[in-house]
Amino acid sequence: MKSLPVFIIAAKRTAIGRIGGLHRVRRVEDLAAPVVEAALKEAGVGGDEVDELIVGNCTAGDNPARLIALASGLSVTAMATTVDQQCASGLEAILAAARRIAAGEASIVVAGGAEALSTAPWRIAKPRNLFQTPHFIRSDPFDGAAMAEHVPHNSCEALAQRHEISRELQDTWTLASHAKAAKARDARRFVGEIVPLRSTPEEARDQSAGAPDPDELADLEPICGDHGTLTTGNTSTLHDGAAFVVAVSEAEWKRLGRPPALRPTLNAALGVEPGQEAEAPIAALNKLYGRMNGLDRSTITAFELSEASAAQVIALCRQLTIDEAVVNPDGGAVVRGHPLGASGAVLVARLFSRLVRQEERRGTRYGVAALGANGGLGLAALFERV
Question: Which CATH superfamily is domain 262-385 in?
Answer without folding.
Answer: Thiolase/Chalcone synthase (3.40.47.10)
